[in-house]
Amino acid sequence: MSNENAARPATEPILLSAALASFEALWSPRIVTRVNDYDVRVAKVRGEHVWHVHEDTDEFFLVLDGTLEIALRDGDGNGDGDGDGKGGDGERSVTLEQGAVFVVPRGVWHLPRSGRGASILLFEPSGTSTVGDAHDAVPGHVDVTTGHALDA
Predict the structure, then answer these.
(1) E-strand spans in 10-151?
(2) What spatial distance separates the first Cα and last Cα of the chain, rounded to whole Å?
(3) pLDDT tens for residues 121-143?
(4) What are the residue ranges of helices labelled H in the chain?
(5) Rounded to two decimals, what is the model's pTM?
(6) Mean pLDDT of 94-116
(7) So what's the pLDDT on residue 81?
(8) How far apart are CA 78 and CA 71, in angstroms?
């Protein structure tokens, strides 16, 4: 689904609770509005996403409800010098409670996950894929998209 119709600034206030109530799909963000050339997206999440990296952009997370954990592979992470970000050493994680924000810097491999589920808001350049520029095998429950129009 293209995000062209949703990629405009909102002309009326948008209630995030109503936006989130308008869909059930997990790991399938909806574009709420646009700010300059960035999408404002909301998503419902539970379980694990996929290890991935955005080479040219940071990724902003705001937890609206629940708890989100983001595992990070700082630097190469595997010590073999190939820069693929895969491996165990160099991993850490951050836990975001409701109201917390975190920015994953460009070029850092990361894995968002939530055991009990969460609702999140993201800022990403329009057209950014949910699985980044490189990623591990994508599980069936993860929607590979640049965002869906909000049907609220």
Answers:
(1) 30-35, 38-48, 52-53, 59-66, 68-73, 91-96, 101-104, 109-125, 134-135, 148-149
(2) 16
(3) 999 999 999 999 999 999 999 99
(4) 16-21
(5) 0.85
(6) 98
(7) 40
(8) 15
